[in-house]
Write a structure and sequence with these properties.
Length: 520
């Protein structure tokens, strides 16, 4: 029932590449209505075309605006062939090769590398951050150059979870792209329009495809296809259509639920038409399916949900202390039940990568985690990511900060004793997250520093350095008077701690602030 929507995507594809004009297509719909399926069908169409097309995908993380420009970073990494397990030297070399392949001028290559580095986690706090406008210009230029080499399709999933700055960048990208052949396809829930009421409006090169629920006839046809030769009693089918509400994921998960409970054979026959489960929503169908899992497999799925839609086998082994054989068996079982699927090419060398079959499965699995164990699991996730990152910890600093913050929130809710160590780890992670985002989004960096200060009361050891970082962020954000006050606080705190070098550095930076105020 999505033929017209697929045809609309295909028309925009031809416009983008036959007319050399950038195009933006937003696929809007409720969870489970078929956004990802439509994009997969479109990918099959693109694969069948004679021209070679670069297809780059990024996804916005399901824990909201937790990571700056994560989806764009994934796209740049994919273009450069950067893996999550690469060390900083390999990352720098691959980025240089990717830039060199599209930019001929040496000075432009250096400028692009410097501005793209924060997206792949290479920037450090010691470097002077570029302004957001300059970074946007550089990122647009890079994608423009890549598109100039041949057709380029960017797919960004779950844009409703994107950082506001990423939305700004995408809108500017299509305004500025000129003659390059570029198609940007984004998927989002309707909440996107609540955040950006004017998204895509007024742009001749932008289109929105809204996926409405299936009608009863289409839903009945889908159920018939899923249930094979089985015939549902008329009253059961009527109630089922009402509860499905035209959501194809409900129909799919309902059929899987019948299979999980042994009510539907492989050949599509109902073993019994009585006592059929009829959950009231797609989330309830998924919850009912998870209840059919063996306890150890359900525990494994919940652990995976802590990481988000994508996770790795080693992460689960570290979090749950599961042996390789037991882990492999559990993941295989979850795969057979179509709850997770293996990713063909893992972003971490030597690790098997998986993704949830649908984001809603991840959401339901996470919601079922007992609150008493959420703190432990988020802390284990943060520590595993830190170990994986090694020298590239800045690239994942925001992820680490998110997991430590969640661990602390749940530990406090559970009134766990002796939280000093967890508070210290969270504070350090927040500071590192601030450092890593200074080259991307100064306002976000400052927010991380403020949250770190909340865990570092006046007089606490180490507070001076956090205050100094917050002062630097305020200065970069243009609030000079506020920066001067914060630097003076940092100087006094360094003096109280006996940190002479820190005191000298803060004095040096304060002199720059005062000079900018005209107090020579």
């Amino acid at each position: 029932g999505r033929g017209e929507e697929l045809a609309a995507l295909q028309r925009r594809y031809r416009q983008a590449f036959d007319e050399h004009a950038g195009q933006l297509v937003t696929v809007l719909g409720e969870p489970g209505v078929g956004k990802s399926r439509l994009v997969r069908e479109f990918a099959s169409y693109v694969d069948a075309q004679p021209e070679l097309v670069a297809w780059r995908r990024g996804h916005c993380l399901s824990y909201g605006e937790a990571v700056s420009f994560w989806a764009l970073g994934e796209i740049v990494k994919a273009q450069a062939g950067i893996m999550e397990s690469d060390d900083p030297r390999e990352v720098a070399a691959k980025l240089a090769t990717a830039v060199g392949a599209v930019a001929g001028d040496a000075s432009e290559r250096e400028w692009l590398k410097a501005r793209l580095s924060p997206l792949v986690g290479l920037a450090t706090v010691g470097e002077a951050p570029a302004g957001r406008d300059e970074s946007f210009v550089a990122w647009r230029r890079f994608l423009h150059l890549v598109a100039g080499q041949g057709p380029l399709i960017l797919v960004i999933e779950d844009l409703h979870w994107a950082d506001p700055a990423l939305l700004d960048f995408l809108e500017q990208l299509l305004d500025q792209v000129g003659v390059a052949g570029l198609l940007v396809v984004v998927t989002a829930r309707p909440e996107l329009l609540e955040r950006r009421p004017g998204w895509g409006e007024g742009r001749p090169n932008a289109a929105t495809i809204s996926l409405a629920p299936l009608d009863d006839e289409q839903t009945a046809m889908l159920l018939a296809a899923l249930l094979g030769q089985s015939m549902l009693p008329a009253e059961v089918q009527s109630l089922l259509l009402e509860r499905a509400g035209g959501n194809p994921l409900y129909a799919e998960e309902f059929a899987r639920l019948l299979t999980d409970r042994g009510l539907l054979t492989r050949h599509g026959r109902l073993t019994s038409a009585s006592d059929l489960p009829l959950p009231e929503s797609v989330q309830a169908v998924i919850a009912a399916r998870l209840d059919t899992l063996a306890p150890e497999h359900k525990t494994l799925l919940q652990a995976a949900a802590v990481f988000g839609k994508v996770f790795w086998s080693g992460a689960l082994a570290a979090m749950e202390g599961v042996g390789e054989e037991e882990l492999g068996h559990g993941l295989a079982q979850l795969g057979r039940k179509e709850l997770i699927r293996a990713v063909r090419l893992s972003a971490v060398e030597g690790e098997l990568e998986y993704s949830f079959w649908h984001t809603l499965i991840r959401d339901v699995a996470y919601a079922q985690i007992p609150r008493t164990s959420r703190s432990r699991r988020h802390r284990a996730a943060a520590e595993w990511i830190q170990d994986l990152a090694g020298d590239r910890v800045a690239d994942r600093a925001e992820l680490v900060a998110y997991h430590f913050t969640q661990a602390l929130v749940h530990a406090r809710a559970a009134r766990e004793p002796d939280l000093a160590q967890l508070e210290g780890s969270t504070r350090s992670a927040l500071v590192l997250a601030g450092d890593s985002t200074m080259g991307l989004d100064v306002a976000r960096a400052e927010a991380y520093y403020r949250r770190a200060l909340e865990l570092c009361p006046a007089g606490a050891s180490g507070r001076a350095r956090v205050v100094a970082r917050a002062a630097r962020a305020a200065f970069q954000g243009g609030r000079v008077a506020e920066a001067a006050t914060a630097y003076q606080e940092a100087i006094d705190a360094f003096a109280a701690e006996g940190e002479v070098e820190g005191q000298g550095e803060a004095l040096n930076r304060l002199s720059s602030v005062l000079w900018n105020q005209g107090e020579a």
